[in-house]
Design goal:
alpha+beta, Rossmann fold
Length: about 350
């Protein structure tokens, strides 16, 4: 593993993020994954988040922990975790197999994160090059922990914005949110809505929200190789270089950076017979927040959120999240819609379009 540093700067709504790595394969992955939101402005001074993700063949957390034990300002708060007023260092094992050392620091309105993984030399070369194992699967997991989680925390801490598990499309300039458990078909239904005039894609999995608007949280769309692609219709481009269990797709058009107001929030469920029931704002807010804690990537974030919040005990993310979402949905039509799974995607998509059109007209 060489000592070269490869840099990429990406632009999320209101937040610019710099990622540095010494691993060329990971740098190539980042360029392919975040291709649609690579910043046009390469000024690193304008980045609010600075992240390093490095691999080290001489990796040893014992040396660093020994140094931290002898640093008066650092307090040991766990077997593998140390903290001071503006810094937390912790060793985590992600997906029960990959150890990552995270060194998280806050500097005024910026955050810095150094992530260190062990490069296993010949073993990694054999696994990923000779036996053609998909290193991209590990890269995907590492990116969530080392890139997305600090990003989520920055939005909460400095922008009073939060993450929500929801598919989202823009319908004539206003957002339609589709919420529900994983596997309910949010992605497929949101793609089917793109066939309607005036509808454009925002996100198929995650969005940010504050008290006024929703904002796209960029991810590549993941579809099982067996999934139907009939609704993609030239609107998305396949990232062919990824060797993963799912295929990755990026929107063919540019990703919007502006926030938009929602006019409908729909909670999807399967049931024997179709039904539609209006929800109170309190019911909608509680359901949306609870559903957002269930996907693995967001459930894992809660652990990091608790840890990073130790740097600022005045922050109450739960209260802020609830109040912001309640304010956002004040003039939004919130419904739970039950669809018979046996009727299939095409018939249920037609029903959902009729429901959304009726809400738009009222």
């Amino acid at each position: 593993m060489n000592n070269a540093s490869y840099n990429i700067i990406i632009q999320f709504p209101k937040v610019k993020l710099k990622i540095s790595t010494n691993y060329r394969s990971y740098y190539d992955y980042l360029n392919l994954y975040f291709n649609k939101i690579i910043a046009q402005d390469n000024n690193q001074d304008n980045c609010q988040i600075d992240i390093q993700v490095n691999w080290d063949k001489d990796y040893s957390n014992n040396t660093l922990f020994t140094q931290l034990q002898n640093t008066p300002a650092m307090l040991q708060i766990g077997a593998n975790t140390y903290m001071s007023d503006d810094r937390i260092v912790t060793l985590r094992k992600i997906e029960k197999r990959t150890k990552v050392l995270f060194d998280f620091q806050r500097e005024k309105n910026k955050i810095l994160l150094k992530s260190l993984l062990q490069w296993k030399g010949l073993k990694d070369i054999i696994r990923y090059r000779f036996f053609q194992k998909a290193e991209e699967e590990k890269f995907f997991t590492v990116t969530y922990h080392a890139v997305y989680y600090p990003l989520f925390w920055y939005y909460e801490r400095f922008l009073s914005a939060h993450i929500l598990h929801s598919s989202c499309v823009s319908y004539e300039g206003k957002a339609v949110l589709l919420c529900g458990l994983e596997g309910i078909g949010k992605t497929s239904f949101s793609l089917s809505l793109l066939e309607e005039n005036g509808v454009s894609f925002l996100s198929d999995n995650l969005i940010f929200f504050d008290a006024n608007n929703v904002y796209p949280c960029f991810e590549l769309m993941r579809l099982h190789k067996s999934d139907t692609l009939k609704f993609l219709g030239g609107r998305f481009e396949k990232a062919n270089a990824f060797r993963t269990q799912k295929d990755f797709y990026a929107p063919a058009s540019s990703i919007p950076q502006e926030g938009i107001k929602p006019f409908a929030c729909i909670f999807l469920s399967f049931c024997p017979h179709m039904y539609m029931k209006e929800m109170t704002i309190n019911e909608a807010v509680s359901n949306a927040i609870l559903l957002s804690h269930l996907p693995a990537e967001l459930n894992n974030y809660v652990e990091y959120r608790h840890l990073y919040n130790l740097l600022d005990l005045s922050v109450n993310p739960w209260k802020s999240q609830y109040s912001a979402l309640k304010e956002l949905l004040q003039n939004t039509k919130c419904y739970v819609v039950g669809l018979p799974k046996s009727d299939g995607l095409e018939k249920n998509s037609k029903r959902l379009k009729e429901i959304i059109n009726s809400l738009k007209d009222n």
